[in-house]
From TrEMBL, chain A:
Family per similarity comment: Belongs to the GcvT family.
Protein name in the entry: Sarcosine oxidase subunit alpha family protein
Coiled-coil segments on the chain, per record: none
Keywords per UniProt: Oxidoreductase
A GO BP entry: tetrahydrofolate metabolic process
Domain (SoxA A3) ranges: 516-599
Residues in FAD/NAD(P)-binding domain copies: 170-419
Family matches, as InterPro entries: 2Fe-2S-bd_N, FAD/NAD-bd_sf, FAD/NAD-binding_dom, GcvT/YgfZ/DmdA, GcvT/YgfZ_C, GcvT_C, GCVT_N, Sarcosine_oxidase_asu
Gene3D superfamilies: 2Fe-2S iron-sulphur cluster binding domain, sarcosine oxidase, alpha subunit, N-terminal domain, FAD/NAD(P)-binding domain, Probable tRNA modification gtpase trme, domain 1
Pfam family, one: Fer2_4
Length: 998, 195
């Protein structure tokens, strides 16, 4: 049984009890517990099932490296899958459930896979499900997906909120153990701006658990003083529960702060993602203990030795009355001693080394603990719990010498520095043979803009495993980060340790049956035998082996398994570990929840939503909106009982017959001013703008350098030096940037200034036969045909509003576009609605706008153009100056394929049966192309039902279009059949423009 | 384009309306939409001898140094780019100021436009006002000069801000005023203080 000890536990507060549930079962714990500690206190050793074989899984570790104890945490809108119980702080009412089991944790049907394990080796899925090909998608994949998978994906909208924050530091220290604290102290004392992060809720790391003393103080005391000293420094910021997740170029670091994971529903953001820019980054991220590979090392009750120590010392957890310690190093003896000091029994310490005579082994022996050197665990006995171990000689093949009954096994295969953050941005590693681990190579660090080291590894993360070295290394890192040499470091003292011995397989000559029960990756069920099989099948690269076996591909990303796995691979390939190398360390170090990455960007502020001054009025009218860029524009103003199509029909008809109002505020408006403004616009537009008279308007086309049409609109000449350029709604920012690009980079000596004044004005299109009547009723300026003819503009007032009125038309009707300062736009709109009642005024939306312009054969950027169309294709040659020496796009348009007479050109299309051609339809012709596809000779670019003509109308690009008037082309429909259309002039209505020239 | 004259026949409210009508959010800092303010974007060669006189004529202030803003009561002039200034003044004064600029820069290549209606303006105030901006703008506020005008972004949109009184004044485009108010309110919620 695992139980709570009667006393001790440096992190728990026994006066504050918390009740929680696991798989619905009520359990109790204390404030300060992790969920893993609380589960162990309740004898809940079995916490999950493995991914492939559904083997029983227990807690292995006590930190972020935990591969097994993953739970569904919370419920409903606070459900989070794959949460590590070892890093989850216990709180009152916590709900957790185990994962990857069916129908229950104790009785899991998937365990049958375990007995078929011989049939499910590495690459099983690749080999088995490859034929027949079609079966993968429809048969195999659904079955595999159903039986695999870890946690449940939450289905409800997340109840919590998240945020991000920016921070800046001269020195960022990641890790709040003694090395990190000392580095921060040294850097802070130099006056540098320091930020110190610690992923857990406590400062100090391992030192207090391991009984280290610093300058004569206990580690706990020293840590407390160090933190107090740091808190007194105004230039130092400390953040607990904040995990350095990723290191990127130029000192950019992402850190995930778990603000309220342990206090759900208290109104604080759940997580905060810090986006930090640091001059130097010190990674004092510690080290992770490695498991040993012996048969049955995955049976619940087998734990990392340091984790056992953490549970005993920090949380007063007994892993069982009897714990066998198995090790290849001295450090694990601390666990035996800690267990002994807690009054628990260590029947034997199994040490794979030939001898163990260091200070710690001698101390263990002095305490009366039996030490067996040169020995190994042949196998662990037990199913859902450890019941004992069988011992053998490490040098042998596994012949059992004796069996020892126990409830837990504490294993230690040595320590691997946490090199992730060092490696994220290119820091290289070196193999340290003495400690059998990779550690940062200080001569090949990730570098910053000036070529200096961007990251400095410190302490155990730098391979300085012993407390004295660790603290001194943190001190040196702090000094290096601020470019100083300084005072001596404080002295940390811990027991000396004798050298460890690399042990990758236990016993070293283990037979295949044993190797098939030696787990490397607990979560993904990768065993020693799988890696060896991969090597036999030719997988020499560690990256390939990883993907073939799935070693290190689980949610823990191989924190426990990688080094052991590649050591086994090296052995199988008969090469050295450094030659095999490591897989790539990629951010984040531990999973960062998507909510934190999204930050504030959800709901109403998911993305900026641009609103015109009249947006609220449209909403109140029940307008149906469509996105146009980041704007939302009314598509139509459907009335009660009206379909959208009916609304559009009504809006079109009313605008043709009476009076329509369009919110045209989103139209781009750019002021272009200067002595060279005319010359500049002559280059930007295909036509001539420089000779436009003051007070006049002219339609123009803008092309990209390659000749393709990219925007159109009306230019108004304001005065001798000033033009106002109208762009499409989507073009405003893009065209303004295009202008500045040319002015700043190419024509920097031209005297032209531009300003994007799109949002300065609300623009209202007053359209229809009654348009003039409305403006005359508002009064204030002469809008008569003589005073304000077609394609002119004037400043004045309308109904007391400051107005600039453009006499332009995109509908073919009598039309005025009225620009009003945005802050009075809504009032003007409302005034028009009220005053226009007697003239039959109705607002209309973008769809009616489209239909009105299509009836008139006007092109729309984005419909008739798609980035491959030139103005000549659209019969817009009249808007291209033949006289000008140059304009942007001119040379592009002269290229052979753009000048070809075979291009598809714009025509009108009239269906023979009056129906509407499907949007995007292609006109087909005889024969097939090289790919066996039907040949085409054109496509529809705009297609609508015309309420004015009471039939379907369309525009399209057709091969040799202009010369084929009267011919019939055929458009197949989706789902069969086709529609025939006659090629006609693109202007369907009022070709002479009589309606707008009134 | 003046607002007086005989054409005024409807009793609509001609008072200029800011985008959000002065919306307020009270969190650990106070967020308030203000305005509309008079704003003029002036582009010209800042080292042209006529430039200081034009600015003086428009708002009665001198030229700011690079990335600085000079404030005096309701008037201010901020450096926006090597050839652009932002002039701030009471809304009703913008038209007259534009005329004075035109007169002072007669014959000098320049562009002065009224952008009073193109902007939304927010005040973020309180002892922790800086934390609201820290969550949205990639700006090192500790390195911000007291009279610095910082052009930056707030989450996904362009913004500019400067220190003023017991907090900050932030300017964005008018069309995204609702988004910016949402951002500032989200970031100022009680319980999310940074420390």
């Amino acid at each position: 049984m695992t139980t709570r000890l009667a006393s001790g536990g440096r992190l728990i507060d026994r006066s504050t009890a918390h009740e929680f549930t696991f798989n619905g079962k009520r359990m109790g714990g204390f404030a300060g517990d992790t969920l893993a500690a609380a589960l162990l206190a309740n004898d809940q050793m079995l916490v999950g099932r493995s991914f492939k074989y559904h083997r029983p899984r227990g807690v292995v570790a006590a930190g972020p490296e935990e591969p097994n104890a993953l739970v569904n945490l919370g419920a409903g809108a606070r459900l989070e899958p794959n949460q590590r119980a070892t890093t989850t702080e216990l709180f009152e009412g916590l709900e957790a459930g185990s994962q990857n089991h069916w129908p229950s944790l104790d009785f899991d049907i998937g365990i049958l896979n375990n007995y078929a394990a011989k049939l499910l080796p590495a690459g099983f899925y690749y080999k088995t499900f490859i034929h027949p090909r079609a079966f993968w998608k429809h048969v195999f994949e659904p079955i595999v997906r159903q039986s695999a998978g870890l946690g449940k994906a939450p289905k409800d909208r997340d109840a919590d909120r998240y945020e991000q924050a920016y921070a800046f530091a001269d020195v960022l220290v990641v890790g709040g153990g003694i090395a990190g604290l000392q580095a921060a102290l040294v850097a802070g004392q130099s006056g540098a701006r320091v930020m110190l992060l610690e992923q857990t809720a406590h400062w100090g790391g391992r030192a207090p658990v391991d009984g280290v003393t610093v300058d004569g103080q206990s580690a706990d005391e020293w840590v407390k003083n160090a933190v107090q000293a740091l808190e007194r420094m105004e230039n130092v910021t400390l953040r607990l529960r904040c995990c350095g997740a990723g290191v990127y170029d130029h000192g950019y670091v992402l850190a995930d702060e778990r603000v309220a994971d342990h206090t759900p529903g208290d109104g604080r953001p759940k997580h905060r993602l810090w986006r930090i820019r640091a001059g130097r980054i010190i990674t004092a991220t510690g080290a992770i203990e490695r498991p040993l590979s012996f048969a049955g090392n995955d049976i619940p009750g087998v734990m990392l030795a340091a984790a056992v120590r953490d549970y005993v010392v920090n949380f007063a957890i007994s892993p069982g009355d009897r714990t066998v310690v198995v090790t290849n190093n001295d450090d694990a003896y601390r666990t035996a001693i800690a267990l002994h000091q807690a009054g628990l029994v260590v029947p034997v310490i199994v040490d794979a080394r030939a001898q163990a005579n260091g200070a710690l082994p001698m101390q263990a022996r002095a305490l009366g603990i039996r030490v067996e050197t040169g020995k190994a665990i042949a196998k662990v006995k037990g199913g859902k719990r450890v019941t004992g171990v069988a011992l053998c000689a490490q040098a042998g093949e596994g012949a059992v010498l004796e069996e020892v009954a126990c409830e837990a096994v504490a294993m230690s295969g040595g320590w691997s520095p946490v090199v992730h953050l060092w490696s994220h941005c290119g820091g290289k590693l070196t193999w340290d043979a003495a400690n059998a681990h990779f550690r940062p190579d200080a001569t090949r660090p990730p570098t910053t803009d000036d070529g200096s080291a961007m990251v400095i590894a410190a302490g155990a993360a730098n391979g300085a495993l012993l407390a004295g070295d660790c603290l001194a290394d943190g001190h040196a890192a702090g000094l290096a980060a601020v470019g100083q040499a300084g005072a001596a470091a404080p002295e940390a003292i811990a027991a000396d340790e004798s050298p460890m011995a690399p042990v990758w397989i236990m016993p070293q000559g283990a037979a295949p049956a044993l190797k098939a029960k030696m787990w490397l990756d607990y979560q993904n069920d990768v065993k020693v035998s799988d890696v060896q099989l991969a090597a036999r099948e030719g997988y020499e690269s560690v990256e390939h082996t990883k993907r073939y076996t799935t070693l290190g591909m689980a949610t823990d990303q191989g924190k426990l398994s990688n080094i052991n796995g590649l050591a086994v691979l090296a052995g199988a390939l008969n090469t050295d570990i450094p030659q095999v190398g490591t897989t790539t360390f990629r951010p984040p170090y531990t999973p960062v929840t998507l909510g934190a990455l999204a930050g504030e960007a959800r709901g109403e502020i998911f993305q900026p939503l641009r609103k015109t001054p009249m947006h609220g009025w449209h909403e109140a009218q029940g307008a149906y909106f469509e996105p146009v860029g980041l704007w939302r524009r009314p598509y139509c103003f459907a009335r009660a009982g009206e379909s959208h199509a009916q609304a559009v029909e009504r809006e079109v008809t009313n605008t043709r017959n009476a009076l329509g109002l369009l919110d045209a505020s989103t139209l781009g408006k750019i002021v272009v001013k200067g002595p060279d403004a005319g010359k500049f616009l002559d280059m930007l537009y295909t036509g001539v703008m420089s000779n436009l008279a003051v007070g006049k308007c002219r339609y123009g086309l803008m092309c990209s350098e390659s000749g393709f049409l990219m925007d159109d609109g009306v230019v108004a000449r304001i005065d001798a030096n000033t033009f106002l350029v109208h762009t499409t709604t989507g073009g405003a920012d893009r065209i303004h940037a295009h202008m500045e690009d040319w002015l700043q980079c190419e024509w920097w000596d031209w005297q032209v200034y531009t300003a994007n004044v799109t949002e300065q004005y609300a623009q209202v299109a007053v359209v229809g036969p009654n348009a003039r009547k409305l403006l005359e009723k508002l009064g204030g300026m002469d809008v008569s045909k003589d005073a304000l003819p077609f394609m002119t503009w004037a400043d004045g007032t309308l109904g007391g509003f400051r107005a600039r009125v453009y006499r332009i038309s995109f509908s073919g009707e009598l039309s005025y576009e009225v620009a009003i300062p945005a802050s009075e736009g809504l009032a003007f709109w409302q005034t028009c609605v009220a005053a226009g009642a007697e003239f039959g005024v109705m607002p209309y939306g973008t769809e009616a706008l489209h239909v009105l312009r299509a009836e008139k054969g006007f092109i729309m950027i984005g419909d008739e153009t798609d980035g491959t169309v030139i103005p000549q294709d659209l019969n817009l040659g009249w808007a291209i100056s033949k006289k000008k020496a140059d304009y942007l796009g001119k040379r592009g348009q002269e290229r052979a394929f753009l000048a070809s007479p075979d291009r598809w050109t714009l025509v009108g299309l009239e269906t023979l049966d009056g129906s509407v051609i499907p949007d995007g339809a292609y006109a087909v012709t005889e024969g097939t192309n090289a790919n066996g596809q039907r040949n085409t000779e054109g496509r529809v670019t705009s297609t609508y039902y015309s309420p004015t003509l009471k039939r379907g109308i369309a525009m399209g690009l057709v091969r040799h279009g202009a010369s084929r008037m009267g011919e019939t082309v055929e458009f197949p429909k989706v789902g069969g059949g086709s529609v025939k259309a006659k090629i006609v002039d693109q202007v369907f209505y009022d070709k002479d423009g009589a309606r707008q020239n009134v | 384009m003046t607002r007086t004259g005989p054409g005024r026949m409807f009793d609509a409210s001609h008072m200029p309306q800011s985008a959000l009508g002065g919306a307020v959010f009270d969190g650990f800092a106070r967020v308030q939409e203000i305005g509309p303010l008079g704003m003029i974007s002036l582009r010209c060669a800042l080292d042209h001898p006529a430039c200081p006189a034009a600015v003086q004529a428009a708002v009665g202030l001198g030229l700011p140094a690079q990335r600085r803003i000079i404030m005096d009561g309701q008037r201010a002039v901020g450096w926006m780019s090597p050839d652009e200034l932002l002039l701030i003044l009471p809304y009703a004064d913008a038209a007259a100021a534009l005329q004075r600029i035109a007169a002072a820069l007669d014959g000098v290549h320049h562009l002065a436009v009224d952008v009073s209606d193109a902007r939304a303006v927010f005040r973020i105030t309180g002892p922790r006002a800086d934390q609201v901006l820290t969550k949205l703008c990639p700006v090192d506020l500790a390195a911000l000069a007291p009279d610095e005008l910082r052009r930056t972004r707030a989450a996904q949109v362009a913004a500019a801000f400067w220190r003023e009184g017991d907090g900050y004044t932030l300017v964005s485009f008018r069309s995204v005023a609702g988004y910016v108010m949402g951002l500032l309110s989200h970031s100022a919620q009680r319980g999310s203080e940074l420390g």
